[in-house]
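Q: Start with the shorter request: fold the first protein.
A: Done. Sequence, then structure:
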Amino acid sequence: MNYSTQTYLYIDATIGRVGAFVLDRLARILNIIRCVPRDIPQAPKCIVISKFMGIGSIVQAFPFLKYLRKRYPTTRILLVTFKDNEVFSQLLSAVDKAYFIDKSTLLSLAVTTFKALRLIKNEKPTITIDLEVYSSFSRILTFLIFSPYRLGFFLINTISRKGIFTHLLYFNRFQHISRVYKNMAYLAGVPKEYVFDNEELTDMLKIPFDSEQEAEKILRGLGVKDKKIIFININASDLCIERRWPADCFSILIKQLLKLQNTAVILIGADKEWEYNQKCIEQINAVTGEIKVHNIAGRSSLPVFLALLKMGDLLVTNDSGPMHLGDLMGCPTVSLWGPGTPQSYAPQNSKHIVIYHSVYCSPCLYMINERPCGGDNICMRSITPQEVFEACVQVLDWRKECVKVK
C-alpha cells in the first residue's frame, strides 16, 4: 500500500531517528579506528550527493553543483534522490549519474535503497555530502555508503551527528538556502571566489531540442499562442498542503486576470492535480458562465513543461516546485507564502514578487512537525485576491491595459 509523505516523515522521525542515533555511536568507534584525515582531498575520485525532498531544493542547489563541477572537473558526481525527482534529475548536466529510491511503500523503500547502496559503493566514493537537514533516513544512508569523508548539516547541536559526519556545517535558518548550500560547497573544498550568473545556472539543465517545439504546439492547440500567457499553480505537495491559497481566492483572481486585454490563463500541475484544477475551473463557471481557462496539469513531459514556463508572461504560484522551476526558466512570478519562509526559500530576482503576511505562527514549515493551525491556514487566507492581482499587474507592467475591476 502506498503511503503519504506525512507518513514517511513520521516513520523517519521515530524509527529513523533511533536508527541514526545507534549508527552514529557505531560510526564514532569506526572513525577512531580508521583515523580519517581532516583535510578534504584535492582530487576525489567520486562525490555522492544525497538530496531527497523536493525539486525546488534541488534547483536551489544548482550553484552548489556548479561549484563542485568547476572545482573537481574530473571527479564523478553522483546524486541519490527519491524516484519522484527522477525525470528532473536526469536533466542535470552537472551530475554524472543519479540513483533513485522509491518511497511509495516500505518494501520498495527497502529494495531500492539496497540496490542504490550496492551500485554507489561500487563507485568507491571518496566524499558523501548530505544536503538534507532533518532526514534521519538520509543520515543512515550517508553512513552506509562508507565513504571516508562525510559532510552534513547540524541545527541546534552536534550530539547525534558527530559520528556519522566527519565534517559538519551549521544550518542557519535565517540565511537563504542557496547561501547555505554555497557554504557547504566551501566546506567541500570549493574556493570562495567562484561566482556564477543565472544564465550559467540555467545551462545546467539538458533540455531536449524538440521540447520548445512541442511546447509551441501545445500553445497553438489551446489557441493562446499570440496571447499573454498566465500560468497559475493552485497546488502544493502533501509535504505541507497548508501552503495552498484557497481555491475560491484563485477563482476570484482568475476572473480579474481574464479582464486584462489579450490574456490566457493556464492551470498547471502534476497529473494527480488535474482534478483539483478542474474543480477550480468549475467553480468559476458556476458563477460567471463558461470562461476559457485551460487545464494542462500532467499533460506534458517535464522538459516540455520547462519550455512552456520559459514562454510564459507570468506565473502565479504557491510556495512549491513550479515556483522554483519558473524562476529557473526566467518566467516573471508572483509567489504566495504562509507556512514557509520567503526569507530563506523565495527565488531572488527582480522579476519576482513575494506576498507574505507574517501571522504569529508563521513560518511553521520545517520548524515543527504539526501545523499549529490544524489545517486552518490563516496565513494563506489572509492574502487577498486584490493584492495578488495588483502584484501581477506590477510584474507585467500592464496597468494601462487594465479594465476597472469591481
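Q: Next, the second protein, separately.
A: Sequence, then structure:
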Amino acid sequence: MPFPLAPPAGMRDLLPPEAAARAWLAGRVTQLFEAWGYDLVTTPPFEHAEVIERGLETVDRRDLLRFVEPESGEVALLRPDITPQIARIVATRLSDRPPPWRLCYAGSLVRQRRGRARKQRQIAQAGVEHIGGAGEDADAEVVALAAAALEALGLERFSIELHLVGLTRAALAEMPEAARPAAERALVSKDRAELSRVLEASGVGRAERRTLLGAVELYGGAEVLGEARKVFGPSARPALRGLEGVVERLTARGLGDRLALDLGEVRDASYYTGASFTILAHGPGEPLGSGGRYDGLLARFGAPAPATGFGLDLSNVEWALASAGRKVAAPRPVRFVVAGAEREAVAAELRAAGIGAAVVAARSPAQALDYARAWGYDATVMCRRGAREVRRVRDGEARTLEAGTLGALARWVRGESAGSKAARAKRGRRERA
C-alpha cells in the first residue's frame, strides 16, 4: 500500500518561501507584543486532558483530539486553545509574581473539523493574555494592541466589532434548550423573521421575545448603546456602562473609526464574561482574530483573577494582507548559488560578508542558473580557472567577483545603485545597529 502523499485532511505543509513568511509574521507580531510589555511564553503542543477540559469547561468534546500518553498512561489532548495552558502557568509557576501578568505566545492549535465552515484542523495563532487586570483600561489595552499589530503588518482596512455576549445569552437561557441552536443561528445571521418564527414555535414569553428580537437590531455605532438600554433593561446597565468606557478609551486612542457594536452576537457566549471583540477584514471571510474578558477561567485553576486577551489567526491575517496587496514575504539576505572550483572557499567568503551561499555541484553556468531559479536564489557564482563569474538570476547579466567588492555586488544583485534611496536606508540601519 503506498504511503500518503499529503498530510491528514485539515492539516497542511508550508513550503518555501511560505514557511519563512509565516515564521517572520509570527516573530514580527510577538516582537510587537513584547514592545507593549507582554513576555513571551511557549507551551507544549499537547496537554493533560484535565487541564484543557478544566479550562474549557463548556467546550464541545467533539472539537478535541485525544490520545493516551505512552509514558504516563494519562489521557492527553492536542491543544485546541493555548489560554488554559497559560492559566495553568499563572496559577502555578508564576503565582509568586505580582499582577498583572502580561504574557504572549505563538503556536499551533489543533481542533476537530465539524461542518462545512471548518476547513482547517490546524490553526496558527499568536496572542496575548492580560491576567490580573480588571476594568475598561485592560479591555481597551488588548483591543488596541490587536489593532496595532495589524497596522504594523501593513493592514490598513479592518474593523473591530465589540460584543457583550452575556446579555443575549441571559435572554436565550429563558428558551427551551432544544430551540436555542436555531435561535442562535438566526441571531448570528441577523434574520429577524426566522428568529421570530423560532421564538413563537418554542413558546417563549413576550418579554424574552421582545428582548431577543430587539437584540437582532443592535448593530452599528455608539448609538447602539442607548438602544441596548431599552432592549435589555436596568439589569444590563452596569455591563453597558463598562462597554461604553471601553469605546471611549479606544476612541481616545484613535480607533473610533474602526469600531462597530454588535450586541446581538452570541458566538463564544459560554467563554466570555464581559466585553469581547472580533476583528474583520476583506479576504478570508472569517475573523482575523477575536478575544475578550474571561474572568471565570483562573478560578478553575484555584487562582481567581480577572483576565482578558485575544488571539490572531495568522493564516487569516496573511489572507487579508494578500487581499490588500500586502503579501507577506520574509526579509532575507541576498543568496548565491556557488559552483565550480574553490566553491567552498568562495561560499565561506560570501557568508562572512552576510550573503547567503549554497554550494552545488553544477557543471555549467546554465545548470547553476536553473538551480538558482528553481529555489529562489538571487545569483550564481561559477568558479573556474581563477575566474569567478557572478550571474544575476532575474536577467542573466554577468559580472566578475572581486575581493573587497561584496557589498557593491550585493547591491547590484538586488538592482540597487550605491547611491539609491534603498541602499542608503539599508546602510543607515546597519550603522545604527
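Q: Describe the second briefly.
A: The chain is about 40% helix and 20% strand. Residues 219 and 262 are 4 Å apart (CA to CA).
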